[in-house]
Amino acid sequence: MTMKQTYQPPEISGGDLRVPVTFYRQTANAGPIPGTGRTKVFFALCELYESSSKDLEYVASTTAEHTLTIVFRRPRSDYRIKNSDVFEVDDDLYAGVTFEVQHFAPTSDNKEMMKVVGAGNANDG
């Protein structure tokens, strides 16, 4: 007798998306003073979860203190994420940490959700 074993990942519902996340894009300073600033480009509620070994491969070449994987609803045309974007999560555990986007893709089990892997260090000051 053979047993059919299939893994069913837990579904993510709107109630799981509780942590605010804000994405920023680097912008050049206007005027004669060189440098860059950042502009807020997207806000959403997300779910934080421990990065998998596959997620950790994306940040293996960085010297980041923190690695974070977040999941949120796909923004479609409202926001087109880029690898040059950075994000911050409003969570006490990651207060003062800015994450650089290392990898992003729709989740494998639900194409309506977006997974982002970030690597970050604590902000100075």
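That was protein one. Protein two is written in the same sequence-then-structure order:
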Amino acid sequence: MTRSSSLYYTGCEENYEPHFLDTCSLCQRAISNNSDIFMYRGNTPFCSQECRQEQIEMDEADEKRWKHSSKRSNNIKSSESTKDSDTKKAVRTGSIAVA
């Protein structure tokens, strides 16, 4: 076996399955055995702090986009439901309703 130090040995060379810590999740660069591994969100390995930080920033941007789009769709839905509910309910002004 020529690459024994970085192999996850399954019994024979042709059925080699790389270990999940062998490569950086962002740049796909090989992570050597004696180098630091920078982890993110449980089991996502990165070769450097820079790669990990880039992934964190991409995830945060995706989260912000998702929250912004869900807020927009919720606002549209709530304004439509408010229009429908206003026509179906009779409310007396000056009254206080306590639930």
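The first helix runs from residue 49 to 88. Keep this in mind for the problem set.
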